[in-house]
Amino acid sequence: MKPQLSKEEFEPALRMERQARLNLAAVIVEADPDSRFYRQFFQKSCHRVFYFKGKKDVKEIIRNHQNLDGILGIIDADCCYYCKKPSDKNIFLTDFRDLECMLVVSPALEKILNEYCDDEKLENFIREREKEFRDILLEATKYFGYLMCYSEDCKLGLNFKDLNCCICRLN
User: Fold this and answer.
1) What is the pLDDT of residues 20-30, one digit of tens each?
2) pLDDT tens profile 44-57
3) Which helix (DSSP H) or strand (DSSP E) does residue 93 occupy?
4) φ, ψ for residue 29 (rounded to 5)?
5) In whole angstroms, what is the distance from residue 67 CA to residue 90 CA?
């Protein structure tokens, strides 16, 4: 995914926007989907959400622009909580591994299931497994999480971006 701006374009763009909006705060996130999600929590009149290409870019931008006030980075926790890696100054770690995990543990999951799943198929699916859907989902995906943390900890560079799997079918 292409970043919104290059790292070199960020500071001049922010300075230019701050000429029009003096107290503009910049929120830096890892990708466009993150920017679309986090925008809802900030006032457009005094905040601008910028997205770049991953956690590494966000950290680099925050470190390189510590001289500028009003810049906050938001990054996925990934495995930081398990590996006890401290966060950098002015970087906020998500409570869970990523946005998808936040969705799974929030009431939004029920809303999505109610909107997109056939009630009868979902009830049969849950009854056959004798567990709640959230628990089934967490159980089915936890090993990917373990593997991702192991890969990060051992610097294996495993990439799951293009993984296309279906853990369950409701038919």
Assistant:
1) 887 888 899 99
2) 888 889 999 888 89
3) strand 91-93
4) -130, 170
5) 12
Q: What is the DSSP string of 32-91?
A: HHHHHHHGGGS-TTTEEEEE-SSHHHHHHHHHHTTTSSSEEEEE--TTHHHHTPPPPTTE
Total residue count of the chain as it appears in this document: 171
Residues 156/150, Cβ–Cβ less than 8 Å: yes
Residues 6 or more apart in contact with residue 98 via CB below 8 angstroms: 76, 77, 78
Q: Burial code of 83-101, b = ≥16 C-beta within 10 A, e = fewer?
A: eeeeeeebbebbebbbbeb
Residue whose token pair is 């070199």: 8
Taking the model in full, what pTM does it have?
Answer: 0.71
Reduced to 3 states (helix: H, G, I; strand: E, B; else coil), residue 3 is coil
The residue among 96, 98, 14 whose CA lies nearest residue 50 is 14
- Cβ contact 125:133 at 8 Å: yes
Pull the structure tokens for residue 65: 């622009």
**Residue carrying structure tokens 């926790």:** 77
Radius of gyration of the chain (CA): 19
The answer to whether the CB of 47 falls within 8 A of the CB of 27 is yes
Pick from 133, 162, 160: which is nearest to 147 by CA? 160
